[in-house]
Specification:
Strand order of the largest sheet: 4-3-2-1-10-11
Strand content: 15-25%
Number of helices: 8
Helix content: 25-40%
Bound molecules: manganese (II) ion
Structural class: alpha/beta
Order of helices and strands: EHEHEHEEEHHHHHEEEEE
Radius of gyration: 19 Å
Number of strands: 11
Shape: globular
Distance between the termini: 32 Å
Length: about 250
């Protein structure tokens, strides 16, 4: 059996090809998995579970169709969709996870994280993160109308760009000292995260032991996943499939 991990899809109506690949993934590859973990930034933005945008309704239904099959599926917040809450979880059947979280994968302890908390060199971002993850701040935001939240998000993006930080969360990498501290603190040698959009498997020495940090890729140009089974992890990429022909079926002669 196999456990699958994905992150950083950044789903939005303006990028329909990513959503189509995600739905295809849920309807095919993911169905043979023992469990599915989404490690944050499933959505480009999330204003609240009460957002009536029809694009989200379709995506939520597709996730529900997947979890209704009885496959455990988990979601950890990213820095774009940290406002996802219990209503979304109830609607989709996704189980919300704390960040970080240590799980057991076929006898190996693995620390899961979105990864943004490890980008400690970006002090300004860490201040924003601390503010926006505060339950009081989130309650204040949820009390606003969707229109007010949209206006707030647009202004926040403008402010960020004015400071020249529009791409900060993609450009900044994790801090190695923070990585090692988190592994030590949790007594593990292996970490899996997303966020940086720098897919790779990093091996390094941690207090005389071999440690591993696996980074998932984003879905902007292709899909990315980690497939973990009894043989360990595999970082893989999924090229975009050509669109189906008009009937949605394959030519039987090809
Ligand atoms: Mn992120």
């Amino acid at each position: 059996m196999t456990t699958l991990f994905i992150a950083d899809l950044h789903l939005e109506a303006n990028r329909p090809e990513i959503g189509e690949q995600f739905l295809n993934f849920l309807a095919n590859e993911a169905r043979s998995a023992e469990a599915l973990y989404i490690l944050g930034d499933l959505f480009e933005a999330w204003l609240g579970d009460d957002d009536p945008n029809p694009y989200y309704a379709g995506t939520k239904q597709s996730i529900r169709d997947f979890t209704d099959r009885g496959i455990p599926a988990y979601f950890m917040h990213g820095n774009r969709d940290f406002m996802i809450g219990e209503d979304f979880a109830a609607e989709t059947g996704l189980q919300l996870l704390a960040d970080p979280l240590v799980i057991d994968l076929y006898g190996q302890k693995v620390l899961l994280s979105h990864g943004d908390a490890l980008c400690t060199d970006d002090e300004q971002y860490q201040q924003v993160r601390a503010m926006t993850r505060n339950p009081d701040w989130q309650a204040m935001m949820r009390a606003k109308s969707i229109q007010e939240r949209i206006a707030f998000a647009i202004q926040a993006r403008k402010d960020s760009m004015a400071r020249g930080e529009s791409l900060t969360d993609e450009i900044m990498d994790v801090n190695q000292v923070a990585v090692e501290a988190l592994l030590r603190e949790n007594g593990v040698d292996t970490m899996l995260h997303g966020h940086t959009h720098r897919p790779a498997v990093h091996e390094f020495d941690l207090d005389g032991r071999s440690a591993t940090r696996i980074v998932l890729g984003d879905w902007y140009e292709q899909g990315s996943l980690v497939r973990w089974d009894t043989d360990g992890p595999q970082l893989e990429f999924m090229p975009r499939q050509a669109p189906p022909n008009e009937t949605g079926t394959r030519d039987p002669d090809s």
